[in-house]
Amino acid sequence: MVSLHQNGSRGSSPDDSSSAIHPSAKCLIKRSIDILGAFVGLLILGLVVLPLALVIKLDSPGPIFYSQTRYGLKGRPFTIWKFRSMVQNADDLKQMVSNEAQGLIFKNENDPRITRVGQFLRKTSLDEFPQFWNVLKGDMSLVGTRPPTADEVSRYSPHHWQRLDVKPGITGQWQVSGRSAIKDFEEIVHLDLHYQAIWSPWYDLQVILKTITVLLNRSGAY
Q1: Are 38 and 136 in contact (CB under 8 A)?
Q2: By C-alpha distance, which of 20, 121, 123, 109 is closest to 66?
Q3: Domain residue spans in the chain?
């Protein structure tokens, strides 16, 4: 468990009742949209899982799926699922790859750990489809913040924790504002907090529609 820092106090619990709950985290309309979207996403996943599993195995030895501990609403840990897009020992090789981003994120446009099939999965965002299971479980939402890793949250400053006042999302403000082209963590934080300030169920639907457009254009993903 990562030591949490919220609202400027060290070691505060993610379940601290004194910390504010963002309206989106308890909105039944948003949760209904999430459940409906999760069912649609899992239906599509069921149609593509066998061919994708085959090409992933043929392209690179290792498991079909990749799982990792991420941190969601109020810093609560959960296991995220994706189709594996990197070599199976990618986490061990991370220190050998240069980080082209600024701040508490890791990005490399030509990351050598990404497999050939993985490049296609990322360009099309098909690697993200198993996360619809996380949405159905309630760990994630269709729209929210990018869920951080343990290494990232262990170095958070107090204001960074504000981005976890909402559930993490498969898509979000960062997704429709440049995706991987955004390489400054503080800019991501700014976008996340802007999303929280203007959030409404209707705005979530707008972000989902914008995300579909971004995916069709395959812009900003690697």
Answers
A1: yes
A2: 121
A3: 23-217
Whole-angstrom Cα distance, residue 24 to residue 204?
Answer: 10
Q: Is the CB of residue 84 less than 8 Å from the CB of residue 63?
A: yes
Pairing of strands 9-10, 5-6: antiparallel
**pLDDT tens figures, 154-209:** 999 989 999 999 999 999 998 888 766 777 889 999 999 999 999 999 999 999 99
pTM here is 0.85
For residues 37 and 135, the answer to whether their CB atoms sit within 8 Å is yes
CA-CA-CA-CA torsion sign (211, 72, 109, 104): positive
User: Which residues are CB-neighbours of 195 under 8 A, at least 6 positions away?
Assistant: 143, 144, 145, 166, 172, 173, 203, 207
Strand partners, 65: 83
Kindly state the helix (H) or strand (E) to which residue 92 belongs, with its residue range.
helix 90-93
